[in-house]
Structure formats: structure tokens, C-alpha cells
Amino acid sequence: MAFLGARVLSLESRRAAEMATLIRKQGGEPFVAPSMREIALSEGENAEAFDFGKRLLAAEFDAVILLTGVGTRLLWKTLLTRFAEADLRAALERTTLIVRGPKPSAAIREIGFTPAVQVPEPNTWRELLVTMAARAEKRIALQEYGKSNPALIEGLRNQGRQISPVRIYGWALPEDTAPLREAAEKLARREFDVVFFTTSMQAVNLLKVAEEAGIEQAVLDGLRACRIASIGPTTTETLEEFGLRAAFEPSHPKMGLLVNEFAAASQPG
To answer: Which residues pair with 199 in a beta bridge?
Structure first.
């Protein structure tokens, strides 16, 4: 019961109920405000995916880097609307598949492929660059998530590679933004003691609604008054861009470890 009744904010969306349960088990008072939803791009916006499919079938890539599980699944479904499955499978069989972490690894295995390379924890773009430094593949397709990573792309290009980004989905605010706006107002009033961030876009969307409400500075001040726990280095970097400091990262970038290890580290004495 390490939180001892602390008021804990989580911005988790897909696993909101699970996060609330984890916080309660540690003696915290959870307020969970879903902050984002993943949206597939329209057919017109999926030009990059279809161009990737055409070039994949023409054997123009040495490797495909898959950054996210959701993006991997959506990319596959999108390609199947335009190209024959047998042709896609044959093309991927002759292409090196590189996955950033366990989620894209699970997704590509569901489709029927075994990745050739999995980036080690904490599975950030930095580990990806280190992994790629020893590899020979030059023509790379990069499945991106909602926000592009210029540092990763530049780093890969500095290694002498040709990089073709493939954006397949984006992040939007949740359909019901009332809980997120309430969370921003509570932060502005200093009504939380602890805040958990489990992905970078949670911070982006929280501060977006705060800016729209004219309370961005008050929300930033409220966040600085809290103990901030971040799921891992990528999220921590985004927080730092907003002038925020994460007080804690778990041993592995997993939600349960984030809550439980933070609670253990908060034990008095």
C-alpha cells in the first residue's frame, strides 16, 4: 500500500481499467483520463503504404523495420486491400524483418513471419541505431507510428542507408475529451500527487487540451509539483521537451512494472 492514499493521475486509454486497478492495489486514489486513440489513415492518406507495397513486390528493400504492433497489423491489412497475399508473403520472406520490441514482434508472428532481428530493451530508437550499426542492409523501409522520428531517420541515413518512411496511422484525441479536460483542470489546481505517463502522446494531448483551455502554464506547473513516472526513455524525452522531469522509470517498459516498482520505490524508509 505504498501510495498511502496519494491522488494518482493516469492518461492510459486502451488499458484504463487495468491501470486503475493497479493503482488501487498499491493504495492510490486513481483518476484515469483516456488521452488518445489510434486512427487508421484514409485510403487517400495511405499512399505511402501502397507505394511501399509496390516497391516491396519489386524487391526494392533489403529490410523492413517495424516500430509498433498496431502499425504492423494495420500495414498488413492495408496492403491486402491492394495486393495479392501470396505475392506479399513471398516478398516479405526474402526481406529482412527487424522489430523494435515485443509488440511488433508479436504482430508479425501473428501474420506468420519470424523477425530476423529484435532490438534489445528498452527498445528505443537509440537501441535500434546501435543494432543497425552492425548490419549490412542499405535499402530500408521504416514503418512509422503517429509521430515521425527525425532523429532516427537521420541516424539511419548517417549510417549510409536509404530510408523510406511508411506512415500507417495517427493519433487523435479521444472521442470523449471530458475526462482529459477535467484532468488538466485538476492539475492546474494541484489536485494530483503522482502522474503516470505510458506513452509520449499522452503528454502531447494533455498539453494540447490545456492550451485550448488557456491553462497550459498552470498545467505544467501542476505537473512539476507532482512525482512523475515515465514508462521509458522515449516518453521521458518527450516530457523533457516540455520542461518536465521524470522522477522514475521502471526496469522494463511495462505498465505493471511502472506502477509496482514506482510504488516500491516510494515506500517510506
So the answer is: none
9-38 pLDDT, tens per residue?
Answer: 999 998 999 999 999 999 999 999 999 987
**Residues 205, 36 contacting (CB under 8 angstroms):** yes
Q: What is the dihedral of CA 245, 247, 251, 254, to 10 degrees?
A: -70
Packing angle, helices 178-188 and 216-224, rounded to 10? 70
CA 242 – CA 203 distance, rounded (Å): 9
pLDDT at 241: 80
pLDDT tens-digit series, residues 172-214: 899 999 999 999 999 999 999 999 999 888 998 999 999 999 9
Contact assessment for residue 101 and residue 131, using Cβ atoms and an 8 Å cutoff: no
- pTM metric for this prediction: 0.72
Among 225, 228, 250, which Cα is nearest to 239's?
A: 228
Domains of the chain (ranges; CATH) run: 7-35+176-265 (3.40.50.10090), 40-171 (3.40.50.10090)
Report the alpha-carbon distance of residue 154 to residue 162 in Å, rounded: 10
**Are 186 and 15 spatial neighbours (Cβ–Cβ below 8 Å)?**
no
